[in-house]
Each structure stands twice: as structure tokens, then as C-alpha cells.
């Protein structure tokens, strides 16, 4: 038979004898004995917070004196080793964050108030408006009382407002007119060069009695070259104007 259960039965027998002279009801006696047994079992598996709760129950005035005395003694032993922590939300320069919302192992806790915890690993989650969410893991050890566990919060990182080097958005019309100006310059160069070359050829072969269609072909090349040059100048001017008149700088 497990030691705890054997002790509980012995305690129950003692209570049954003591109850002959106490006003406690049978249900209250059963409840008190069950709480004492539950506390001992929790204590053996190091569930000290559960054991503390059970011993507080069976140490109440509603329980028989013999049970109260035993549970009060066990309660003192548990509280002597039961760790307690005080959770604090602070900034990197150690200033308090009163608006912080904190949970310890999923249970809501209040900044500045000692909280009993079982020995072992625990997790604290902290949230506060204007700050990044923070999580801290720590290990509670038996005998630690009112240990302050600080969770450091950092401000939300804002997007950088440092201006970059200033430039300008080139509008589509600028690219189009600039491209056409380049094509027009190419046309001017081609027709001007071929017209001049053909004119030199005619002067050396048939001038001044060259066929009229040959003379017209050379003249046409010169006309196309002249028109291309004018178009290149106009389109290039439009391209430069649209570039310089762009009112929308980008950063």
C-alpha cells in the first residue's frame, strides 16, 4: 500500500475517533481528509502550488483539529520551499512599463505582486502598446522567494525617415520623344551621306547632262535628310523639356 494512502487511512481513523467530540459533519470530515491526501500526493510529485492549495483547505477551521494541525504543519513546510516570483516589465534603461499585460504559463499576472510557482521551467509573455511583444523563459528553484524576473521591452521599430539621394521620375513621353530624336538623327546621317555620295558620283560621270530622275533622287535624299534633321532637333527639344519640367521628384 502506498505510504500516502496508508497515512491517509490512519489519519481518517484518527479523525473518526476525534469526530465523536467535534461538531464537524461527516461530509466535512471526508472533504478535509481528501484534501490532506491530495496535498501529500501533489507534494510528492513536486507540485508545490497544488499541495499548498490543498493544505490551505484542510487547515481551515471547518476541519477537525487533528487534521488542521497536520495540514498547518505541512503547509508551513511547503511554503518554506515554494518558489515565488515577481514579474516586472521594463525598458532597456530599466524604466517600468505600467501598461504591460503579462501572462505566466498562460495565467494572467500583475506586475509587482509575488506569484507562487512550481520548481522548474516557466514562460512569461508580455505585451504593451508601442512595444514589441516579448517572451522570457526561466527556471524557478526551491527556496527562491520574491525573485524579481524582469522582461525587457523594446520600442516598435519605425520605418527609416532618412531621405535618400534625390532623383526624378522619367515620364514615358520623355523616353518616346528621345528615342524618336535618335532615329531622326540616324535618318539625317544616312540620307545626307548617301545623297552626298550619289551627287559626287553623278558629277564625275554625267554632269551636267545627268538624267533628271537621277538628279531628283539625289534631291529627294537631301530633302529627307533636312526633314530628319529638323525632326531630330524638335523631338530632342521636346524630350529635354519634358525631362526638365518633371515636377515630381522621387526619394
How is this structure best described in words?
The protein is α+β, with helices and mostly antiparallel strands. It has three domains: 3-81, no CATH class; 84-152, Immunoglobulin-like, CATH 2.60.40.1120; 167-250. It contains six helices and nine strands. A four-stranded antiparallel β-sheet has the order 3-2-5-6, with no helix packed on it. It has a three-stranded mixed β-sheet with strand order 4-1-7, with no helix packed on it. A hairpin with a 6-residue loop joins β5 (120-127) and β6.
Distance between the termini: 81 Å
DSSP helix fraction? 40-55%
DSSP summary: helix tally: 6
Number of domains: 3
The main pleated sheet reads as: 4 strands, antiparallel
Shape: rod-shaped
* Biggest sheet: strand arrangement: 3-2-5-6
Q: Multimeric state of these chains?
A: single chain
Mean pLDDT, as a whole number?
83
The value of Rg in angstroms is: 48 Å
How many distinct beta strands?
Answer: 9
Give the ordered list of helices and strands: HHHHEEEEEEEEHHE
Unreliably modeled segments: 15-22
Please outline what is shown here:
This protein is an alpha+beta fold. The protein is 52% helix and 17% strand. The strands form three sheets. Strands 3-2-5-6 form a four-stranded antiparallel sheet, with no helix packed on it.
Task: Indicate the topology.
Blueprint: H1 3-18, H2 26-44, H3 48-58, H4 65-81, E1 84-90, E2 101-104, E3 107-109, E4 114-116, E5 120-127, E6 134-140, E7 147-152, E8 167-168, H5 172-205, H6 212-244, E9 249-250
Parallel strand pairs: 1-7
Antiparallel strand pairs: 1-4, 2-3, 2-5, 5-6, 8-9
Helix pairs in contact: 1-2, 2-3, 2-4, 3-4, 5-6
Amino acid at each position: 500500500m502506498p505510504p500516502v494512502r496508508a497515512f491517509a487511512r490512519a489519519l481518517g481513523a484518527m479523525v473518526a475517533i476525534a469526530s465523536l467530540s467535534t461538531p464537524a459533519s461527516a461530509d466535512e470530515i471526508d472533504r478535509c481528509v481528501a484534501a490532506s491526501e491530495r496535498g501529500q500526493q501533489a507534494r510528492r510529485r513536486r507540485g508545490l502550488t497544488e499541495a499548498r492549495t490543498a493544505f490551505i483547505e484542510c487547515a481551515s477551521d471547518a476541519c477537525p483539529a487533528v487534521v488542521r494541525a497536520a495540514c498547518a504543519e505541512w503547509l508551513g513546510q511547503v511554503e518554506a520551499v515554494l518558489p515565488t516570483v515577481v514579474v516586472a516589465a521594463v525598458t532597456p534603461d530599466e524604466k517600468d512599463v505600467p501598461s504591460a499585460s503579462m501572462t505566466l504559463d498562460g495565467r494572467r499576472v500583475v506586475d509587482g505582486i509575488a506569484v507562487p510557482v512550481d520548481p522548474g521551467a516557466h514562460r512569461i509573455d508580455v505585451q504593451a502598446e508601442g512595444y514589441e511583444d516579448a517572451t522570457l523563459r526561466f527556471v524557478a528553484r526551491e527556496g527562491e522567494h520574491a525573485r524579481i524576473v524582469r522582461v525587457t521591452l523594446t520600442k516598435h521599430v519605425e520605418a527609416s525617415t532618412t531621405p535618400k539621394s534625390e532623383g526624378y521620375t522619367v515620364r514615358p513621353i520623355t523616353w518616346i520623344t528621345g528615342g524618336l530624336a535618335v532615329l531622326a538623327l540616324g535618318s539625317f546621317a544616312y540620307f545626307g551621306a548617301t545623297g552626298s555620295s550619289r551627287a559626287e558620283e553623278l558629277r564625275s560621270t554625267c554632269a551636267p547632262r545627268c538624267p533628271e530622275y537621277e538628279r531628283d533622287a539625289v534631291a529627294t535624299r537631301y530633302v529627307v535628310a533636312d526633314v530628319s534633321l529638323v525632326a531630330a532637333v524638335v523631338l530632342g527639344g521636346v524630350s529635354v523639356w519634358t525631362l526638365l519640367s518633371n515636377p515630381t521628384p522621387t526619394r
